[in-house]
């Protein structure tokens, strides 16, 4: 038994997976959560005989840790983290910890928008091609749990900025950066550069034999690459072909040029609609070609992929009005993409926990496309301040049922009712999934 004490802060998916892996690796393990641990996770900890506490942090134990693995949701500003830092204790993320115990190839995806769709698409392509691959990070079972219990040759990881913060020696074999737009600024002292720095950590430690795939039309990303001058091999993609573009569109087709092979496919055959999904398909396709997936296999996977729940998910058409669940749009840029892909007048439901949002990004689209706005949140004052007077009909709702009933009355035949909140869900719902599920249920009950 290794006498080293690993303390895990946070008893959710990430923390519990870490505790299981640490125990398997022979460490002494203690898990601490300042809140209540869900029954499901409490049962798992008990079945693995892992010592844990909830509703408190016992400093006497925590400060004795040789290393602390912190769940991504816990900010650096929390008191216990501050005390550990003062003591000089090594604090890392679950992703960093788990990566020490696997020799699998790591394909890592980040970006303010499109991460979940892209990791699921890459996973779908690789799995359909017969590779032994796991999907984890910000989706599904935690990376640490899969390293402890499975034996995959490849992992596709969705990495949020919070998860990237705790990376030190971690190295992605293939890194994908889709875009960087303002998000989570409340976590980053309202300093956009701090958020950008967290996102750019995805290329930390990458070497010339590794791959970095990025959207070259993003001014922030291109500026950072010029500044950082990483030695990694770059594979830029964009809407149109420029000097170094590897993936692009032309004459209604998608093109990917890697390893001397030119893959092409009609855009209308892609499973996912909208320009933002063309980018997600380009990024995923470049990954596939770098991993020698055949053209035929890639074509099939890009055309038969089933989208991600809560992301522009078509729910039902009721009396000629289509209802779309985009509950995963927890920032303004996500809502911008959703509105951009609407072809009809739209009744837009938005609101929730504001993360320092700037709504001017969707101002023009709301004016041109929105028939009505429904604000669904505990405090809609910021939304009213920005949007009042710009759209004829603006209503407030304090529950999902009220919002859907209002939308039903306001929408006209041929319209779309779109739930694309721009905000986190924690004021009225457990999470964005709960918000989307409630929307779907209310729509089906119309």
Largest sheet composition: 6 strands, parallel
Please report the first level of CATH classification, the CATH class of the largest domain: Alpha Beta
Give the N-to-C terminal Cα separation.
60 Å
Strand content: 15-25%
The CATH fourth-level homologous superfamily of the largest domain? Mur-like, catalytic domain
Beta-strand segment tally: 20
Helix content bin: 25-40%
Q: Which architecture of the largest domain per CATH?
A: 3-Layer(aba) Sandwich
Mean pLDDT: 94
Spatially, the strands of the biggest sheet line up as 7-8-6-9-10-11
What would you call the shape? globular
C-alpha-based Rg, rounded:
23 Å
The low-pLDDT segments are none
Question: How would you describe the overall organization of this protein?
Answer:
The protein is an alpha/beta fold and 446 residues long. The chain is 35% helix and 23% strand. It has helices spanning 13-24, 39-47, 59-62, 79-87, 94-99, 115-128, 143-149, 161-165, 192-200, 219-228, 275-290, 295-304, 332-340, 363-369, 381-387, 400-410, 432-444; strands at 5-9, 28-33, 51-54, 67-70, 90-93, 105-110, 133-137, 154-158, 174-177, 211-215, 233-237, 247-250, 253-258, 261-266, 313-318, 321-325, 346-350, 370-376, 393-397, 416-419. The protein has a six-stranded parallel sheet, covered by helices on one side. Helix 1 runs parallel beside helix 7 (143-149), helix 6 packs across helix 11 (275-290) and helix 6 (115-128) crosses helix 12 (295-304). The chain is globular. The mean pLDDT is 94.
